[in-house]
Amino acid sequence: MILLLTGGAGAGAQPAVVEYTAGRVATLADTFTPPLDATTQVSMPANWWAMLRRRQATRPRA
Q1: What is the percent of the chain with per-residue pLDDT over 90, rounded to a whole number?
Q2: Cα–Cα distance for residue pair 41/49, rounded to 1 Å
Q3: N or C: at which end does the chain have fewer Cβ atoms within 10 angstroms?
């Protein structure tokens, strides 16, 4: 799942969620400096599946 980060730390980034636990903790594929904090606003776009597929297609294969 792709998230859109706006405002605060990480503004403009589109990280992918690689794990989500029953405790409602999301692990993101990217790291952030400075770290995300309470000023970061997060939303999930309606077309998140298409965005994830495009992101995977543009990443180099190992």
Answers
A1: 56
A2: 20
A3: C
